[in-house]
Design a protein that fits this description.
Distance between the termini: 22 Å
Structural class: alpha/beta
Number of strands: 5
Strand content: 25-35%
Shape: globular
Order of helices and strands: EHEHEHEEH
Low-confidence stretches: none
Mean pLDDT: 96
Strand order of the largest sheet: 1-3-2-4-5
Helix content: 25-40%
């Protein structure tokens, strides 16, 4: 099973903004309980949408610039980017169906 790539403040533009496929970004931190709950769901989404959607994770503790740029106030926050723009977001540990139906709108 392919787990989502980790992106950083330094690689965010290249990996997310310049991606030619939609990107699901999981904003998380190691101390966050709900982030750990949603992690397996994000892994499954990564597998299910392989080739259609790029799935990446960004540790907000280590990469505060991107988190503040997008006004992340609570984690986990899952954002969908398409064509370099943020097109949607889901806050909190959500079921896989919610995440899948959010992504399906952009495929």
């Amino acid at each position: 099973m392919s787990s989502p790539a980790q992106v950083t403040d330094a690689t965010f533009k290249e990996e997310v903004i310049e991606s030619d496929v939609p990107v699901l970004v999981d904003f998380w931190a190691p101390w966050c309980g709900p982030c750990r709950m949603v992690a397996p769901v994000v892994d499954e989404i990564s597998e299910q949408y392989k080739g259609q959607v790029k799935v990446v994770k960004i540790n907000t503790d280590e990469n505060p610039n991107v988190a503040s740029q997008y006004g992340i106030r609570s984690i986990p926050t899952l954002m969908v980017f398409k064509g370099g723009q943020r097109v949607d977001m889901v806050v909190g540990a959500v079921p896989k169906t919610t995440l899948a139906s959010t992504l399906d709108k952009y495929l």
